[in-house]
Amino acid sequence: MTKKNKIVLVIMLMVGLVIFYFSVKQISYHSLMDAIAHLHWSWLVVAFLLMASSLLLEARVVQVLIRQQLPTYSFWAALRVPLVEQLFNGITPFATGGQPAQLVALLQSGVDAGRATSSLLMKFIVYQAMIVVNFIICLALGFQYVADRIHGMIWLLVFGFIIHFAVIVSLLMIMFWYRLTKKLLKLMMLVLKKVMTNSNRYKQLEQTLNEKVDSFYQESLKLKANKQVLVRISCLTLFQLLIYYVIPYFILLALGVTNANILLVTTLHVLIVMVISLFPIPGGAGGAEYSFSVVFSTFVQQGNRLVVAMFLWRIITYYLGMFSGIIALAFEPKKTSK
Prior knowledge:
Pfam families: LPG_synthase_TM (PF03706). The chain has one domain (37-330). The protein contains 14 helices and no strands. The chain has helices spanning 3-24, 29-37, 41-66, 75-90, 98-108, 113-149, 154-176, 178-195, 199-225, 227-245, 247-254, 262-276, 287-296, 303-330.
């Protein structure tokens, strides 16, 4: 980690403490301790295990992709990749640091740059596609519930869906309509040329975008040629996301909430994650806690239990991954034999 990354990590931990302080400010210490004392720890363990399983499944996706070229690539080397990703996703705006961090982790374990980039690109395509699939299903199931009770979040949900949908549509266009995409890109650059005053910056942007599109198209040909691997990693990713999305249900069970519907809770968590992705602050700090409190206040009316639920959720789905990433960085990966 660079010095800047360490500073951001400390800042994010401080922000978390500040949010926790203001969340419990209006709640008595006795009622907070009472909510913690009555936790059903077995359900909380299940929630932790689900988060761990989600990371293990992501590691398996990495291993399957890398083993297309390196059959000796180990699962433990692959596990380091999603852990490092969790850390850098958590300390960068819009989780932009996760992709470069994964690439570095693969290079450190002996994977060549071309294979590492190719595998991460395939993983990104499938991940985005499965997010859109999950969101469409959950939007159909839970949109009316959110619309009836939480009017202020509707436009955030729609905006979040449009962004993710636009990403996957752009990727599919490059995969299946390469020439059309190149023409549209050329047209877009002509429009930008009239707006951008710095000619050098314009040329650099044009070159970068063309290189990205060409690189992605070449990798998509490999992806389409290996349909068995594509189906396999798609199923693994879909299951990984499902496991992750169901975590709040078991947190509610840990708090003694037995009237929650697992399908509805999972659906609402998908919508929350979509909203969080819109916040530029690393980890969606502030927005994540607010969204969770608003959405799940229907199931947990007592303020003390809602605060505990919110922070258990953040610890499991956010801070656990970050600290696991710190531990992963501390261990030098074993080089994979070619």
